[in-house]
Write a structure and sequence with these properties.
Radius of gyration: 29 Å
Structural class: mainly alpha
Order of helices and strands: HHHHHHHHHHHH
Number of helices: 12
Largest sheet: none
Strand content: under 5%
Shape: elongated
Length: 279
């Protein structure tokens, strides 16, 4: 047998024995160990990175340890084991439980921070529901209110910027979707709640909530384009009013972003608006 092949077989055999030994060890402690023995093994499993085993033991021990000198450590370790095991929903609830049970506990600062971290890890991509994102934002803000001088504050602030960017991206995706749908649903000639109007409202609300966001130009471009399309597809009754509104929006865009690559689009719209208004 080739020496390297023999070496691989030996390594794999050792790993199998070690995993079997670890499993047997856990089963013995879980079934027959008393509370103190299970707690010591839970700490050992945690230190060895066996977070699932640590979580299983700690979930049963944490209630028994309540009121003892080890209660704080046990509850906090359970939360960290859940977090390290990527069970972020459970971790956030356990960190919250620690904060409410021990508001001045030795791990209170870390627990408050990791409520935010757990929800941050649960935050989905911008297209999806952002409830965990909003939860993480609230958690980080509460953490900074409670511990304004914490060394973890800069990290929490960085997370907040990132989470707010995600909310802004979701708003932009929604506004852009309305614009792209245009008049597909319903007759926009007679329906003031058209998709173009929805795009305008969504973008305007986003700018109101996040006036200095990095996507400000993109939002204003969508508003300008939507107002022009709304005018283009308008009824005769509202035609002039909407072309004037679109023209004003174009000038506003040029004034704020004179070096934008989209100035040419704004100027093209202005020329069309002037022609309609003059005629």
């Amino acid at each position: 047998m080739h020496p390297e092949m023999k070496k691989c077989i030996i390594i794999l055999s050792c790993m199998t024995l070690l995993m079997g030994s670890c499993s047997s060890e856990f089963n013995a402690v879980y079934k027959y160990g008393d509370t103190d023995a299970r707690y010591e093994y839970a700490k050992e499993f945690f230190a060895r990175g066996k977070f699932q085993q640590a979580t299983t033991l700690l979930e049963e021990i944490v209630t028994i340890k309540k009121g003892t000198d080890e209660a704080q450590e046990c509850l906090y370790m359970l939360a960290m084991a859940q977090y390290c095991n990527h069970d972020y929903e459970a971790a956030s609830e356990t960190f919250k439980k620690y904060g409410s049970s021990y508001p001045r506990g030795i791990y209170a600062e870390q627990a408050a921070f990791y409520v935010g971290e757990s929800l941050y890890e649960s935050s989905p991509e911008p297209r999806l529901d952002q409830s965990p994102t909003n939860g993480a934002i609230n958690a980080y803000q509460q953490f900074m209110d409670l511990f304004p001088d914490s060394k973890l504050r800069p990290r929490a602030q960085d997370r907040l910027y990132e989470l707010y960017d995600k909310l802004i991206q979701k708003e932009y995706i929604s506004a852009e979707l309305y614009y792209n749908l245009g008049g597909y649903f319903g007759n926009i000639n007679s329906n003031d709640e058209s998709n173009y109007n929805a795009s305008i409202i969504t973008a305007q609300n986003a700018l109101k909530n996040y006036p200095y966001c990095s996507l400000r130009e993109d939002f204003m471009l969508l508003i300008m384009k939507s107002k022009f399309q709304l005018a283009e597809n308008s009824t005769e009754e509202k035609r002039l009013e909407r072309y004037r509104d679109a023209e004003d929006e174009c000038y506003g865009f040029i004034n704020e972003f004179p070096d934008s690559k989209n100035v040419a689009t704004a100027e093209k719209y202005i020329a069309k608006c002037k022609k309609v208004i003059k005629d």
